Amino acid sequence: MFYGCMNHLKNMKIAKISDNQVKCTLSSFELSLRNLKVGELAYGSEQVKSLFAEMMQKAYSEVGFDTEDYPVMIETIPMKDDGVELFITRVEE
Prior knowledge:
Layout: E1 13-18, E2 21-26, H1 28-33, H2 46-63, E3 72-78, E4 84-90
Antiparallel strand pairs: 1-2, 2-4, 3-4
């Protein structure tokens, strides 16, 4: 599984919640590197798709969270410092 280069997400934090869920924490700096704001994450722009692909690759490499053959549900929670927490849940049928 390869989603692309992870140069911009070195400081992103990944925490495994369960076998089907991880939490990704992105700082406002990491979002600014991509010229993104929290509100733009809900839209499927190429920048957001690229960011998500990098997050999933990092989640896979760090905690073994694989979403390749599963639909996912994403909950985005803005933080007071303009960063964001994303809860990514793999939906198994």
